[in-house]
Specification:
This protein has a domain of 34 residues. It is built from three helices and no strands. The relative contact order is 0.05.
């Protein structure tokens, strides 16, 4: 059967892109990948779908926050309290 086909001059066709998705290469820690693969197998969904959902949840949690928002430091808190106490 193998001799019937000649792919020596064959070329790969264009990959049809999925609407709203982009193919990338990403390096993940082995334990993270194994976690998503085992959960995905147990739940009967794709592990890449689960990773995408986790990333989407993380993005939605941070939406609305200012990009330059920094954590409140002790010195900043002291300054705020002084201003409030002085105004009262």
């Amino acid at each position: 059967m193998r001799k019937e086909y000649d792919f020596s001059k064959g070329r790969r066709g264009a990959v049809v892109p999925s609407k709203g998705k982009t193919r990338i290469t990403i390096m993940l820690d082995d334990d993270i990948l194994e976690h998503f693969r085992s959960r995905a197998e147990a739940e009967g969904v794709g592990y890449q779908t689960m990773i995408n959902a986790a990333l989407r949840a993380a993005v939605s949690r941070t939406k609305g926050k200012a990009a330059d928002e920094k954590p409140l430091t002790a010195s900043a808190l002291r300054k705020i309290l002084r201003e409030e106490l002085h105004a009262a």
